[in-house]
Amino acid sequence: MTYDAFSLADLGWTPFFSTQLDLFEHEHCLPARVMAVHRDRLLLAGAEFSHRIAPFAADAAGAQSTATVGDWLLLDAADRRPRRLLARSSLFQRRAAGTAVRLQLIAANVDTVFVVSSCNQDFNPARLERYLSLAGEAGVTPVVVLTKADLCTDAAGYAAAAARLLPGLLVELVDARDSRAAAVLAPWCGRGRSVALLGSSGVGKSTLVNSLAGAGQATQGIREDDARGRHTTTARSLHRLPSGAWLFDTPGMRELQLAQAGNGIAGVFADILQLAAACRFADCAHQGEPGCAVAAALQSGALDPARLRRWRKLAAEDAQASLSLRERRERERGFGKLARAVMAAKRERRDG
Questions:
Q1: Which of 248, 267, 280, 302 could cross-link to 297 by cystine, CB 3.0-4.6 Å?
Q2: Which residues define the annotated binding site for Zn(2+)?
Q3: Do both 164 and 218 map to the same domain?
Q4: pLDDT digit string, tens, across residues 76-89
């Protein structure tokens, strides 16, 4: 796909970004959006031009930040080299897979996130709560999109189960293979709007991209033994919809590890936190203490024990991951101070 015919408004440029530019940048810089992220390059698009650069890192708001799909960069108008990364209106991130203690960027400047699951064995409330917590932390409105509704005899039951996870949560049932899915999701897909797709492999995410945008994403069949599919997406990218919206497609994530997502978790489990606030003791651990409102709700059936266990698991995971990230930053700051002291001592000996 070529991007040379699009205006900045087509690409999602809004006053939120334009007000970040000073007079010099307005006159001598070109805004460009990251349309795709590959291992060795970024594909950018600006007003009637496209460009490729190596992965870009810049000092944004005092912190080192790597550009990700959906970001806006300022390019020098003369040589089109990146000058800086603009502040984001929203950012999805997670703790990176593996043993490394670091955050991985997923998508930036998202207006709406479609949390994709399916009406089969892959439907998992705990996994959905993780995605909803991530959306809440990013400050982006989530819409749960349940695929394979045409293959299920109780699609409404799946939709009701998803809606119970968060008050006011919007849930849509679609057949991902049917182009009419675009009509169902049209309210969130206006010109220049940006929507993200999050969901595990096998739920029909790439198939939904095919139906909505004709993007030609490679898809593979569902394994009949566990109703899960093989991971097929190879790069984070933006796809233009016929409505003029931009659809993010991100690699499937079986294990979404949260970090620094306390506000998002609190939003998803606001019912439990409201109960906890009514406990007799402020430090109640909800483990049998007298006057525990959480225990009373469990006993009366007002609170599902499984939901309480999921909240505890997510809260503990987030706390541990956030602590690990803070410890790593402290070690890095300590190493940086030591390195600067060593270099200063070397200069002093050399100049002395």
A1: 302
A2: 279, 284, 286, 292
A3: yes
A4: 999 999 999 999 99
